[in-house]
Amino acid sequence: MRPLAGPVLITAAALVLAGCGSSASSSSSTSSSSAAKLSVKSAYMPQPVTDSMAAGFLVIENDGGTADELTSVTSDIAQDVTVHETTGQSMREVAGLKVPAGGELVLRSGGDHLMFENLRHKPKEGETVSLRLNFTESKTITVEMPVKSATYQPASGQ
Ligand code: CU
Prior knowledge:
Blueprint: H1 5-20, H2 30-33, E1 38-46, E2 53-62, E3 68-75, E4 78-87, E5 90-93, E6 97-99, E7 104-107, E8 113-119, E9 128-135, E10 141-148
Parallel strand pairs: 1-10
Antiparallel strand pairs: 1-2, 2-7, 2-8, 3-6, 3-9, 4-5, 4-8, 9-10
This protein binds copper (II) ion (CU).
């Protein structure tokens, strides 16, 4: 393992430089020094067809200059919530999904998604499911996800 002293010193130096830089000119470090700024939109869960499993979809926007990564999800309604990546017709659990700087992570039907397994309660249309999204950079975001009909499709245009 690399000793920690190097990176720590660099960070401290960067903070000093940022602290005394009174000019607002655009330096080359502008984008890398602005933190990830996340917001969640278009969250929904189709009413699950089985008692044990449900999917969830949402879009995470990042207005900041630093990429972030969704690493884990928890919810009171399910024992396990995992992040799934869809490739072609198959899906697999992944350790995390990137939220690019100045971009967005889109979880949608037919693509990447959240998977709620071992449901403690089967969500019904009209209910709201509360979940917490954990990231490597940003603080945890709590999302109130509305439960829609089993065949619900969001308005296209993404
Ligand atoms: Cu899945």
